[in-house]
Amino acid sequence: MALAPRAVLVHRRSELDLLLDRHGTRGQAEFFLRSRGRDLASVQRRHDALHEALRLVEAGVPGGWRRASVERSDLPRLRFDPEDVVVAVGQDGLVANVAKYVSGQPVIGVDPEPGVNPGVLVRHSASECVALLPRVASGTARAESRAMVEAVLDDGQSLRALNELYIGDAGHQSARYRLHEERQSSSGILIGTGTGSTGWCASLARERAGAPELPGRLDDSLIWFVREAWPSPVTGTTRTQGLLRPGESLPVVAEGDLVVFGDGLEADRLHLTWGQQIEVRVAGPRLALV
Predict the structure, then answer these.
(1) What SUPFAM superfamilies does the entry give (predicted)?
(2) CB neighbours of 96 closer than 8 A, spacing ≥ 6?
């Protein structure tokens, strides 16, 4: 007997939650903000908007469905089922955080604050999401297939990201490695997707003359940049940007301790030691964005 769909609601802790964790009570949090010329009202409004969106979506989950709720920091510990319909309620970056842990399950992005977030990946209101849920389960809702980037270590470990992967020094100091056999010392390497071309990669491309054209949001190619490559008698700067198409890879050999993380989640990362090789390429799994 087939299992009923499961609605998995994903969210981040609000600014108010973080303030209360730090200061203990609402009064102390309010005093802290007021002493710096701010008030708690705007923080409270954002908190309320998030929780109202979560409440509406949860109340609208069809009867008979299974349910789960998870905070962003707990995503690595959640096992997603094939029958899951994932609902990310929050900022656009939350969809990117979810993408690395799913394998084809449809993802609906819900914007709790329309007009505040860009809405590139969180495209729906809570009420629109409620109407979408049965259509997603029946396969009648349209979903975009978004390419992801994947890094694979020579020991078999791997990591995926929707926007971009960063390879560099754990302390954000000079990273030393070989890229296509050229020894380099830099602030790290950034490899982005078409989805990520409106973010960090776009900032790098704007600063460079002759930068490759950024991939479109539905393209399968990747773009990569070396950040602040340093010329010296033993390190070069001839390979600092380029495109990767399906079937191509970017090989990097560590000449020091390096880390790899995706979409800003530094806690979930790979570690490279001297001599290890990592290859970056278009990932096989893709995000199904409703």
Answers:
(1) NAD kinase/diacylglycerol kinase-like
(2) 121, 161, 162, 163, 195, 196, 263
